[in-house]
Specification:
By secondary structure, the chain is an alpha/beta fold. The chain contains 8 helices and 7 strands. A 7-stranded parallel sheet has the order 4-3-2-1-5-6-7, sandwiched between helices. Helix 1 runs parallel beside helix 2.
Length: 198
């Protein structure tokens, strides 16, 4: 029986010299997803958390698919040991393909690129353009400041749902799949009206 979600896209950093505990977190998530029979989709790099995730998933017998823009193949050092490396023409195409090919999303520590990818998924969810869940795997409070920002947005009327519904978190890789299966999309009535869904 095929698991659900069958394909999870993981957003995470590809920088060098990242904290060892974050590297270990990416590796642990890769092993958990491989054991569950979930295909992992990610940004296609062999560096940083991306590389650690890919290597651990592959070593555990999991399936890895990388999506990378052509101009980042050399810059991010594309991982050549994946089951599939899809080279696309732009960052916009990368995000679109990730969205189309994935059932759900998981966010690890990362930088501006990781935020951009996660924000697009969250934005489209709030607009009712998809119902794919997104979870932050965050055992050490890396995303605490972001949750405080969301809470401030909600308090001032810029966010129509509670901050902890937008930024939903788990602290253990083993909890990721169960959390994703339980989650509801963060669609708001106002967004649905804007989208012409009501």
């Amino acid at each position: 029986m095929q698991p659900w979600p069958a394909k999870i896209c993981v957003f995470c950093g590809a920088s060098r010299d990242l904290p060892a505990e974050d590297i270990a977190l990416a590796e642990a998530l890769g092993r958990v997803l491989a054991k569950a029979g979930v295909t992992v989709i990610y940004g296609g790099s062999k560096r940083g958390l991306m590389g650690a995730l890919a290597d651990a998933t592959l070593e555990a017998g999991g399936r890895m698919i990388g999506i990378i823009p052509e101009y980042l193949v050399d810059l991010e050092i594309a991982h050549r040991g994946l089951h599939e490396l899809q080279v696309v023409d732009s960052m916009h195409s990368r995000k679109r393909v990730m969205m189309e090919r994935s059932d759900a999303f998981c966010v690890l520590p990362g930088g501006i690129g990781t935020l951009e990818e996660a924000f697009e998924v969250l934005t489209w969810s709030q607009l009712g353009l998809h119902s794919k869940p997104l979870i932050f795997l965050d055992p050490k409070g890396f995303w605490d400041d972001l949750e405080r920002l969301f809470a401030s947005m909600a308090q001032q009327g810029y966010l129509r749902v509670p901050a902890d519904r937008v930024l939903q978190r788990v602290t253990r890789p083993e909890a990721v799949l169960d959390a994703l299966r339980r989650m509801q999309p963060t669609v708001t009535p106002e967004a649905l009206e804007l989208a012409g869904s009501t």
